[in-house]
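Reader question, answered in our methods column.
A reader sent in the components of a multi-part assembly and asked whether the whole thing could be modeled at once rather than chain by chain. We filled in our standard form and ran it. Here is what they sent:
COMPLEX SIZE: four components
ENTRIES:
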Amino acid sequence: MATPPRARRSDAQRNRDRLLEVARTVFEEQGAQASLRDIARRAEVGLGTLYRHFPTRDALLDSLLGRHFDALAAQAADLAAAHPPREALTTWLRAFAAQAAAYQDLSAALMDTINDETSPLHASCSAMRGAGARLLRDAQDAGDVRPDVDGLELFALVNAVAWITGHSPAVAARRDHLLDLVLDGLAAPSSRR
Amino acid sequence: MATPPRARRSDAQRNRDRLLEVARTVFEEQGAQASLRDIARRAEVGLGTLYRHFPTRDALLDSLLGRHFDALAAQAADLAAAHPPREALTTWLRAFAAQAAAYQDLSAALMDTINDETSPLHASCSAMRGAGARLLRDAQDAGDVRPDVDGLELFALVNAVAWITGHSPAVAARRDHLLDLVLDGLAAPSSRR
DNA sequence: TAATAAGCGGAGCGGTGCTCCGTATGTCAA
DNA sequence: TTGACATACGGAGCACCGCTCCGCTTATTA
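And here is the structure of the entire assembly that came back:
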C-alpha cells in the first residue's frame, strides 16, 4: 500500500482525514461506485480538493483498504504456521471474502486491478493474492485441494461469490453458504468429507 | 418474454428493427452497459425514438435475449426427458452460462431482475430460472447433487462465474474450467467422480 | 507582519440516462 | 388523388456523472 504522505499544511491533513472518514461511510452505504462529487459535498470540501488528495477512485479505495489487505497478507503467514494447510486456507479465504464484501462492487474493482499495474490497489492487492496463492499451494501439496486450480482461479471464484452477494438481498443472506459450496467443491476428491 | 408489438406504421417497424440490430452489435462490443445514446446514433435514429420503442434498457435487452431465454426454458424440458438428471443439469447450465456471457455485465442485469418484477426481463428470466430449478431438483432426487443447494443459489453461482469471466481476459480464458470446478463441487459426495 | 509556498474550490467540458413536445410523415377514407 | 389525422420522429433540455484547470485564499515561516 502507498505510504500516506503527511500533508505540509494542517488544513490539508484535516481535509484528507475528513474525506477518508466520509468516503468510508458513503462507500458502505452506496458501494464502491458511489459518486465522488457526493463524497466531496458531504465532506464539505471542493471537488478539486478530493481529486488532489486522491487522484483516482482506486487511490481512495487503496487508502481505505490498503492496510486491511496488508494485514490479510500477513495473516496468511500466521495461519500457515499455526494451522493445517486446509484449515489455514479456508479460514483465510473467509476473511478475504468478508473484506471484499465491505463495499458493494468492490470485487469488480479488485478484479480490474489484476490487469492494471498502474492502479494503487494493484500493489497491495497482488501482494495479498500472492499470500493466498501460497496457502493454496500448501493445501494442494498436502493433498487437501484438487491440484487443477491455481491462485488466479481461486481469487476469481471467491471474488465472484463476494460480488454476487451484493446483487440480491436474498443471495446476500447466504454468502457463507455459497462460499462453503465453492470451497467444498475445491477439496481434493480423496479428502472430501 | 414480451410479445413483439407489430408497429402500425412501416417506418416505426423499420426503426425498431434497425435499433435491435445495432443494439446487438454494440452490446457485443461494449457490454450490456453500453451508451444508449451511442446505439441511437449508430442506428441513425433520434434518442426519443429509441426510448419510445424500448422504454428501459431492460426492455431492449429483453427484446434481444427474451427468445433465447424462452428457448433455454424449453430446452430444459427436452434435456430432462432425454438424459440422466446429472447430465441434463450440467449440459443446461453450460448453455445458460454461454448465453449469460453474451454481453459483458449481462449477469449483473440478470441478477437484478430477481428483485424487480417490473422489469421485462423478470418474466422471461424467472421462467428460465424455474426450469433450471426443476433440473436441479431432479438431480438432487437422483442423489447426484448435494441436497443443500437451491435454485437461487445455483443461479447465483453460475451467474457469478459468468460475470467474473468478463472482468479479466486471463480469467475469461478459463471460463469452462471455472464452471467445471463449481459444478463438480456441487456433486453429491457419494456420486463424486 | 509581510512574502510566499501550499492548498482550496468550483466553473467548465464532455459524457450519461431520461423526458417532453413541436414537427414531420405514413395511412386511409373520401 | 387528395386531404386529414393519428402516429411516430428527433433533439433540446434537465440533472447527474468523472475529471481538469486555474484564480483566489490561507497557513506557515522568516
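What stands out: The mean pLDDT of chain B is 94. Chain B touches chain A at residues 108, 111-112, 114-115, 148-149, 152-153, 156-157, 159-161, 163-165, 167-171, 174, 177-178, 181-182, 184-186, 189, 192-193 (CB under 8 Å).
Send us your own complexes using the same form.
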